[in-house]
Specification:
The structure holds 3 protein chains of 3 kinds. By secondary structure, chain A is of the alpha/beta class. In chain A, about 35% of the residues lie in helices and about 25% in strands. By secondary structure, chain C is mainly α. Helix content of chain C is about 80%, strand content about 0%. Classes of the chains: A alpha/beta, B mainly alpha, C mainly alpha. Bound molecules: adenosine-5'-triphosphate (ATP) and magnesium ion (MG). Magnesium ion (MG) binds next to helix 1 of chain A.
């Protein structure tokens, strides 16, 4: 028997509701991900990208098939899999500091140590001076940066990111993309990153998964044959441009099919 | 500045009385009422009544709010509790709670127990509903987020559900404060030998209008102060939440 | 069947209550069996004893409520759209809203007597607060776009109230009326319990004084039904009056 993949989805299907109103969100998904891969997922809106992440997160259980981590079925959420949600999901009653330190507090990390780690992540997402603000006092982009820090501070092995930068301006987005790539390299994490931005998918993913219109299936998986360095002006790289065009056409077909 | 209209109203009252437009048999002048209140405060005779009322309302309120929060949260999170409590709640919801006073007097006597019990029940209802609705509308993302950051299932109620439901619970508790005072006064009107309601009722009965109005105003000021203090406390405690006011 | 399951817990309580009272663990004159209460309730309805007090309470509540609507809605609209009215009335009404108006029962008895007038006046006073405040907030929060649009089509200042401000505030006014319905029944019953003068409240207190718990219960059930049905009627009317309004809830 071949060695079990690090993270594996086997014949996963997901249906919501039952009877005539049932929605089939995902169908026959097979995907294996090795440790320390950076996998990006693109596909038309409503094709089940968020659902796929929720399954790995253990928030939902598939209606068929299974999701395995190191060969063991995932059946509940845990701090080994950190998630940044598509919508803002900070705890509105906690300050930035407490939000970022939330997972550490749950783990029982002592106050002093916690504050030190939180300070590190506050610097990482450039939110110095906002530690004692509440989420409602921050802009959307700042909130999303806090969510990123909150997730990273738990030191998860796997990072699940659901269009984390969808609401950000272009510059902030580029900075945070570099940040995520750096963290991935430095901490050797495994990343599953959903986006609807093809350029982002190619800039970040070592493998790019294109999903079909609903019910979401895996349409193709492309391995990026080249590296993208931090801060690189990849627009000038012809291999990058060619891959982006290929993925873009593939997604466009599906968007058309979805509009059908 | 905001109190200026109130001051104007009081001024008009006093002016009408001084000008003889308002016979004392209809309404004593503001000064008479104020003097009467001053006298009661100075002699201290109003204090034991204040304490008696506060004791009853406070005990009932505390029981009702504590029970209401626990029940409401449990209803929202535990299906069996919801099934069991919801129909009972629907049944007692339309009952005007002061109308329970006579029955509770039969069961628990005419003393403090029956009053406290009715006040507790009356405070419980808005708080249960607020806690239940608040806890049910907790964003799934927040629950998931907490789970993914290591919060165990059993701690969710305390770590996520309660804080997110807090704004709604706070509104329910504010209703409960007003309700507690209404039921308190009703019950003290119906049967009591102490308390501010009793005092109003007995002064009214002997035609001492200035003293009666003095206690009414005293009660109004206390009630207003309680409401303000509560709101101020909330603002401090829940600065994370943007209040409409 | 679904209803039966939903009502299961209530049925259990009723059953337990009935058993406890029947077996004689409690004094049935203090804690009468449910069937006794239902029987008494039917009796007072069938022999007509309940009609006079029922009617008394009902019309007092409705009269006070109607007067509060007649006065409160125009006043609230005025406050919402006129500076000086807002300046003067808004603080008074928000100050008075949380205060227990039933503390005025002895004063109203002194002014208006023991009977219907004092009760209707008190119900009117108490209901005025929610109606004015809800109307005011509704009228004040209107999007000015509607007003501008009507203005540019030649609607005059006075007609504006009737043609634009009122319909747009209706949802909020209705919220106020629904609060007031509950208040009206409560104040009617409390004032009858405290100062007599007929009605279900007095019936209850009298039954209590004579140790007639069954009749007190029958009165309580009737009061609750009045409250419930008035509330449901108000809800039903809302659907008819506000069918064009998109409700969030
Ligand atoms: N809880 C739910 N109940 C019913 N249907 C659901 C539920 N969650 C998702 N769906 C449906 O499943 C499908 C996939 O949803 P999902 O949110 O995973 O899409 P997505 O690819 O993330 O879309 P987007 O790019 O817009 O975020 C959609 O058609 C959606 O309507
Ligand atoms: Mg999504």
């Amino acid at each position: 028997m071949a060695a079990a993949a690090y993270l594996e989805m086997r014949g996963v299907a997901m249906r919501f509701g039952d009877g005539a109103q049932a929605v089939s969100a995902l169908d026959s998904i097979d995907l294996s991900i090795a440790e320390h891969e950076f996998v990006t997922i693109v596909g038309p809106s409503g094709c089940g990208k968020s659902t796929l992440l929720y399954l790995v997160g253990g928030f939902l259980r598939p209606t068929a098939g299974g999701v395995y981590l190191r060969g063991r079925g995932i059946d509940k959420p845990g701090p080994d899999r950190g998630i940044v949600f598509q919508r803002y999901s900070l705890f509105p009653w906690l300050t930035v500091r407490k939000n970022i330190g939330y997972g550490l507090e749950e783990k029982g990390v002592a106050r002093v140590e916690r504050d030190r780690i939180v300070g590190e992540y506050v610097r990482l997402v450039h939110l110095e001076g906002f530690e004692d603000r509440y989420p409602r006092e921050l802009s959307g982009g700042m909130q999303q940066r806090v969510a990123l820090a909150q997730t990273l501070a738990c030191q998860p092995d796997i990072l699940l990111m659901d269009e984390p930068f969808g609401a950000l301006d272009a510059q902030t987005r580029r900075i945070l993309q570099d940040e995520v790539r750096r963290i991935w390299r430095r901490d050797t994490k495994t990343v599953l990153f959903v986006t609807h931005d093809v350029e982002e998918a190619v800039a970040l993913g070592t493998r790019i998964v294109v999903m079909s219109a609903r019910p979401g299936r895996i349409k193709e998986v492309v391995t990026r044959g080249f590296d993208v360095a931090d801060g690189e002006e990849f627009e000038a790289n012809p291999a990058f441009a060619a891959l982006k065009l290929h993925i873009w056409r593939s997604v466009k077909e599906e968007v058309k099919a979805a509009r059908g | 500045m905001k109190m200026l209209p109130l001051a104007l109203l009081v001024g008009a009252w006093q002016a009408a009385a001084s000008a003889g437009l308002l016979p004392a048999s209809v309404l004593p002048s503001f000064w008479e009422v104020a003097a009467s209140l001053g006298g009661m405060l100075r002699s201290g005779e109003i204090l034991p009544h204040t304490a008696a009322s506060f004791g009853r309302a406070g005990a009932g309120f505390a029981l009702g709010v504590a029970g209401g929060v626990v029940l409401g949260l449990l209803m929202a999170r535990v299906r069996a509790v919801e099934r069991a409590i919801e129909p009972i709640l629907l049944l007692i919801y339309p009952v005007p709670k002061p109308a329970l006073i006579p029955l509770f007097m039969v069961w628990l006597g005419i003393g403090d127990f029956s009053k406290i019990a009715v006040i507790a029940l009356a405070c419980l209802v808005p708080v249960v509903i607020a806690a239940y609705n608040g806890a049910r509308s907790v964003d799934d993302m927040l629950i998931w987020s907490a789970r993914a950051r290591g919060t165990a299932q059993g701690r969710l109620l305390w770590r996520v559900v309660l804080p997110s439901a807090l704004p709604q619970i706070a509104a329910g508790v504010r209703t409960a404060i007003a309700v507690a005072i209404i039921v308190l006064v009703s019950s003290e009107f119906i049967s009591a030998e102490t308390g501010l309601g009793y005092l109003i009722f007995s002064y009214g009965g002997v035609g001492a209008d200035d003293a009666m109005l003095a206690v009414v105003i005293y009660l109004a000021v206390l009630g207003y102060a309680l409401d303000r203090a509560y709101l101020a406390g909330l603002r401090r405690l829940m600065s994370w939440h943007a209040f409409a006011h | 069947m679904r209803l039966l399951i939903r009502l299961g817990p209530v049925a259990l309580i009723v059953l337990a209550w009935e058993l406890v009272a029947r077996v004689g663990w409690v004094n049935p004159n203090v804690f009468p069996p449910v069937t006794d209460i239902v029987a008494r309730w039917l009796t007072v309805f069938l022999d007509g004893r309940i009609y006079a007090p029922l009617w008394e309470t009902l019309w007092r509540a409705l009269a006070g409520l109607a007067a509060a609507i007649a006065v409160g809605v125009p006043l609230g609209l005025l406050m919402g759209r006129t500076r000086w009215a807002e300046w003067f009335f808004a603080p008074l009404f928000s100050f008075g809203f949380p205060l227990p108006k039933i503390a005025l029962i002895p004063l109203y008895v002194h002014w208006f007597g023991l009977f219907s007038l004092s009760k209707v006046m008190l119900i009117f006073t108490d209901c005025l607060f929610p109606i004015v405040l809800f109307t005011y907030h509704g009228a004040r929060g209107l999007s000015p776009v509607y007003l501008w649009s009507a203005q540019s089509r030649g609607t005059g200042r006075l007609r504006m109230f009737w043609r634009v401000v009122l319909p747009l505030s209706l949802a909020s006014i209705y919220d106020g009326i629904q609060v007031a319905v509950v208040v009206a029944v409560l104040v009617a019953v409390v004032s009858e319990m405290v100062s007599g003068g007929g009605g279900l409240g007095e019936l209850m207190i009298r039954a209590y004084r004579f140790g007639d718990v069954r009749t007190a219960f029958a009165a309580l059930v009737t009061i609750s039904l009045i409250g419930y049905f008035l509330y449901r009627i108000a809800q039903w009317l809302r659907g008819i009056l506000l069918h064009w309004h998109v409700t969030e809830a």
